[in-house]
Write a structure and sequence with these properties.
The complex is a heterodimer of chains A (209) and B (342).
Chain A (H helix, E strand, L loop, with lengths): L2 H11 L5 H13 L1 H18 L8 H12 L13 H13 L9 H10 L22 H6 L18 H11 L4 H13 L20
Chain B lengths: L4 H24 L10 H14 L2 E9 L2 E12 L2 E8 L6 E5 L2 E6 L4 E6 L14 H6 E11 L2 E10 L6 E7 L5 E7 L5 E12 L18 E4 L14 E4 L7 E8 L8 E7 L4 E8 L11 E5 L2 E8 L2 E7 L3 H9 L1 E4 L7
Parallel strand pairs in B: 6-12
Antiparallel strand pairs in B: 1-2, 1-11, 2-3, 3-4, 4-5, 5-6, 7-8, 8-9, 9-10, 10-11, 13-20, 14-15, 15-16, 16-19, 17-18, 18-19
The chains are: A mainly alpha (209), B alpha+beta (342).
Chain lengths: 209, 342
């Protein structure tokens, strides 16, 4: 990958690429798997840096990205660079060769940033009446220009046992197409147990009674 | 270091723009026809597109604030459905189905499940929304909007009670493929979402697209080699539900041997025409000496509930709220002469 292309990707991510160039690069992204993977890495790293609401990466990957980011003194709240170009160089260059394995299309991350609802968030857009003061919440007031890189949390997703996997797969054959896709996707996305974790004695693990 | 929202908006537009460009290209040759489908008609078209067309797409699956990218490849060739669903950035799991054979690669467990289903269950057919379904869901078109340069019809399927979930679907006008779908609970909260980032409809997809990317060296293979026999149940008992949530009825009763299982498992399917719940009944291998404890589980937004009745383990699984699987599992009773002795 040449430096010019790298620079273009980075500029596109920062919304600093001309629209025409964006279009061209987007077309190239659709054809070039290596470029797509690289772009995906930028998006993941960016999402982790920004601690996007509604975007949580799989724990091992987020952990690796976080580990690299936390080792970067330039990314602490007090010293975070204000200049966007400078910031860009600081966060993506050390990671460019880090080999973070994630062939994720950035486009999807970006799309979800705008679309993904928050858990428990009402599906109603709040409109502030003219003249109505917006009172900052404690978190937003405290945020300012700084950010906190989130540490990966244990996933709340059930770990399917082999038996439950059997049931899920067998059931999926009788679901409607959309439900089947949801079910199998959720199964794919469920967290894996740590290496060496024993199969639970009971094959369907209790979560709440 | 926060990025302006216009960045994500523009990139999102670009994202699906190049993604569905291929769809548009594929559809260019198709003649335009007037769009006069009812909301139910859109659902039927969508089901048909999902099950009968050839496509290769990448989508983001969101559930519980967690995002994972997956790829789906679907092909219907000479009446045989092939499908591959692969996790791109998480567990590395893959499902590959060819006709009635379904192989599930679980690299995180170093296990491969191989399940053979009867040929007639090879998913060529698909459920159709009917009048009965309309009794329990309010199916409406709530919008006709541009979604990243594509015309979509937004169809809401809202349950009329709390026994089932609802959906909101953004169905592409020209291809009938759902570019975005949301699963919605009884309180109107979105609990699961799928958004396609790329989607290509093709006339041909090569066989090589249905090969797993992972090496299975050293993996444990679990197969159900025995051919399921519809009469060979887990027991001589006939299991049925004494009462069901409104609209649900039993549509399938079969016996099968699941991968890794020793004995046959009775499999009952209950559906309201849109949502479905499977109930699996298997004889408990040995009494543990402790009273059985009912257990709940979740796979994404789908629910599972397990309990023990008359020496048999009953497990209900379905894309319905937890209370529904619990209710159905609790209603299952054994009928027949042998019941008294158990």
């Amino acid at each position: 990958m040449n430096e010019e292309l790298d620079s273009q990707l980075s500029a596109m991510f920062d919304d600093e690429l001309l629209p025409a160039e964006c279009e061209l690069l987007a077309r190239r992204l659709s054809r070039d798997e290596h470029l797509k993977a690289r772009w995906g890495r930028y998006a993941i790293i960016g999402a982790v840096i920004r601690a996007e609401r509604g975007v949580r990466l799989n724990a091992p990957l987020a952990g690796r990205v976080n580990a690299v980011l936390l080792a970067e003194p330039a990314l602490t709240a007090d010293t975070a660079p204000r200049d966007r170009n400078q910031a860009r160089l600081r966060w993506w260059q050390p990671l460019a060769g880090a080999g973070v394995a994630a062939g994720v299309a950035a486009v999807s991350i970006m799309w979800l940033r705008a679309q993904a609802p928050l858990p428990g968030a009402p599906q109603v857009t709040q409109v502030t009446a003219p003249g109505q003061a917006i009172v900052p919440t404690a978190s937003s007031a405290a945020q300012g220009d700084s950010y906190v890189v989130p540490r990966p949390k244990p996933a709340a997703v059930m770990v399917p046992s082999t038996e439950l996997a059997n049931y899920v797969v067998a059931h999926s054959m009788f679901s409607n197409p959309v439900a089947r896709r949801n079910l199998l996707s959720a199964f794919m996305a469920s967290e894996s147990p740590a290496a060496g974790t024993q199969e639970p004695q009971s094959n369907v693990k209790a979560i709440a009674q | 270091m926060s990025r302006p929202s216009r960045s994500s908006g523009r990139l999102a537009s670009l994202a699906l723009a190049w993604a569905v460009a291929s769809v548009a290209a594929a559809e260019e040759a198709a003649p335009k026809r007037p769009i006069e489908y009812t909301p139910t008609g859109w659902l039927e078209r969508m089901d048909q597109a999902l099950t009968t067309r050839n496509y290769d797409g990448t989508f983001a699956h969101w559930q519980g604030g967690r995002v994972e990218m997956l790829r789906i490849i679907h092909r219907v060739q000479d009446g045989t459905v092939s499908e591959r669903l692969a996790s791109l950035d998480g567990s590395g799991r893959e499902f590959i189905r060819t006709g009635a054979n379904l192989t599930c690669y679980l690299p995180d467990r170093r296990t491969v499940l191989v399940e053979q289903r009867p040929a007639e269950e090879s998913l060529v057919s698909f459920p159709t929304v009917n009048d009965q379904t309309a009794t329990f869901y309010d199916i409406r078109e709530v919008g006709h909007m541009r979604l990243n340069r594509r015309d979509t019809h937004v169809i809401a399927v809202s349950p009329k009670d709390e026994y089932r979930y609802g959906y909101q679907l953004w169905i592409d006008e020209s291809t009938a493929m759902p570019l975005k779908s949301q699963l919605i609970d009884a309180h109107g909260q979105v609990i699961e979402q799928i958004v396609f980032a790329s989607l290509t409809l093709s006339s041909r997809i090569a066989d090589s697209a249905f090969r797993p990317e992972i090496s299975t060296e050293g993996f444990q293979w679990l197969r159900n080699d025995a051919t399921p026999h519809p009469q060979a149940g887990a027991s001589a008992l006939a299991w049925s539900a004494t009462n069901l949530p409104p609209g649900f009825r039993m549509t399938v009763r079969s016996a099968q041997i699941l991968p890794g299982s020793v004995g046959a498992v009775d499999h009952l399917v209950f559906t309201d025409g849109f949502a479905s719940v499977s109930v699996f009944v298997e004889r408990q291998s040995a009494p543990s000496g402790q009273p059985p404890v009912p257990e709940s589980a979740a796979v994404g937004s789908s629910s599972a509930f397990s309990t023990v009745v008359d020496g048999h383990k009953i497990t209900a699984v379905g894309e319905v709220p937890p209370a529904t699987v619990r209710y159905i599992a609790g209603q299952l009773k054994a009928q027949g002469a042998a019941a008294a002795g158990r």
